[in-house]
Amino acid sequence: MYVEVVMMEKVLIGTINSGTGGQLNLEAGTGSSVSFQGGSFADSTGVPASGSVNVYANTISPDQTNFGNAVPGGDFSATDNSGQSGVLTSFGALNNIGVEDQGGNNLEVTVPYDICLDMPASMSTMALSITSMPVWQMRNGNQGE
Question: Where are the domains of the chain?
Answer without folding.
Answer: 12-128
